[in-house]
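Incident log entry.

Two folding requests arrived from the same account within the same minute. Monitoring flagged them as a possible duplicate submission, but the sequences differ. Recording both here for audit purposes.

Request one:
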Amino acid sequence: MTTHQVATHAQPTGSDIAGYLRRLGLERPQQPTAEALFALHRAQIERVAYENIDTYLGRPAGIDALLSLRRVAAGHGGYCYQANGALGLLLHTLGFDVTRHYAGVHGTPETEGARGNHLALTVRTGDQEWLVDAGLGDGIHEPLPLLTGTYRQGPFTFRMAPSTAEPGGWRFQHDPAGGFHHMEYAPAPTGPTAFDDEHTRLTTSPESGYVKAPVVARRDATTIDVLRGRILRHTDADGTSEHELATPAAWFEALHDLFHIAPATLTDDDRTELWARVTRSHEAWLATRTS
């Protein structure tokens, strides 16, 4: 593996890795095997939420992989650059063969290519390569092999196929019930600064969805929960249901107990401001539905 693929300006310490593994509820694996990769990926998906809370509060965190790793260990989640940056650095430090890819997440089948709005990871164990991704919200629970096929994980069915827009790359197609249509990535490895400009746009532009509304997502083997504004959406084998979290007590209980964002990551002032913003966003959203 070429070190620049997951390099940061500084590398994690033993205590950094120990703290991250405590967050995942796992012991340090003895070898970088496929079994260890699957266990780490499942734990990351189940315990570390996809979320944009700090961005929504107007103080977006950076995307340096070491910063992201330390934030995960401290109880935060993150969006794709942060979640996959942290996981990629963890895996690299544990001896896995990790490659970072310039990628794009798209809402329609007509849009193609690696547009830079997503960081994807691939990992090689033995003679098999895997798509590893903790930054897709309601995406994969376990790694997917880079083999053409259809894969069922919990309530969703996914499709893997070589990308026609990015020769040598791959296209991950989401279930129609999911939050986006597909993701595809370019095959070449990319460095740690490749996403800086897009991160700035996504976390500061008034037109960005990350700025307009809070989004928090987490899944396990059989269920997927997504909180957007004050609406909590739950998907399982029986279908999808929605209900409103109408009080701050209910909203923050879900944030901490369902999505595992540590209470210590938010001050009392943060909570007051966050609930006020959530309420304003929710009321604006309701106005668009009734107008």
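Request two (distinct sequence, not a duplicate):
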Amino acid sequence: MATQAAKIQTYIWTGKDRAGKVAKGELHVTNQAIAKAQLRKQGIAIKSVKRKPKPLFSPRKKPIKPADIAIFARQLATMMKAGVPLVQAFDIVIDGLDNPSMKELVLTIKNEVASGTGLAPSLEKHPQYFDDLFCSLVAAGEQSGALETMLDRVATYKEKTEALKSKIKKAMSYPIAVVAVSIIVTGILLIKVVPQFAATFSSFGADLPAFTLFVLGLSDFAIANWYIILALVIAGSVGFKEARVRSKRFSDNVDALSLRLPVVGDILNQAVVARFSRTLSTTFAAGVPLVEALDSVAGAAGNAVYAKAINNIRDEVTAGLQLNQAIRNTNLFPSMLLQMVAIGEESGALDEMLDKVASYYEEAVDNSVDGLTSLLEPLIMSVLGVLIGGLMIAMYLPIFQLGAVV
């Protein structure tokens, strides 16, 4: 198991340079001894070195997102391909980072590498940011002497994966946005607008239409219990999120259900196939043995149903079955993938075939998300029109009846 890396600290120093002039500055290192050693190398006559105090109300740290890791991988790959030494490449990357948390992470890795630790072991100390696949590909590059090539493959893989995740989030967030907007607009009308009409109707002295009475009843209920409704919505959202984290059975059931949803389910299936193909292509091209590659693919599947199926594929391949037949036995993957894998196994170009499959399904996901967006735009207008129009009709029905009587 990887040991926890020492935390980077900021130290303020003062002293005199080689010319005898007063100098001062800051260093970002793990401890005071390293800070003093670096200053001595620079020819500084040290007067004081002390840890920079933290502000009383320090701002919340900006989190490190997977997109930040993808950008880091691409920048490092570009520097390495240009012939820049690894430690110097880290310095260039650090200078271009805006996220302080990411800058601290890269600086920690740079110090580990500068002290003689390999890049892959340095990355393995931060598993929350660099997964097993990332680290294994970098390790393969270091062992083969082709680190810049492996970093380029890792960068491409991370970029493709993050682009795919972005499309899936877009597909999932749009229907949620429709429901949220509808609920908010309806709530505002019931709590703020309908009571104004109710005060007017109280002076009519006539029976109100059933539809109007129903809406007035909803308004009274919303006004009396809005805080309970809001608490239930918040509790439901938090409870769902916690249940997914804490209960594997619940999470697996949600994953299975999501694949059967209309429209969105097709997009999720295509996305998992694209991710499966892209991950297996990347690892296989890097020379990772197929069984080990399937372990990485299962971890990157993003869906419990497919992760279980991929583990079954790994077990059957380990037992001697061909990959295309093991995939076929799951009854989950599309025929196009099966045929391309079979061709790849026969021709010895499995990584190329899988790359083509990944590109095809990534484009299919992109087109499906665009189609879903186009479908939901008029649906939003229709839903809001029915809700707002229905409420307005319910409020104006008594006025219309009164006009007819007059």
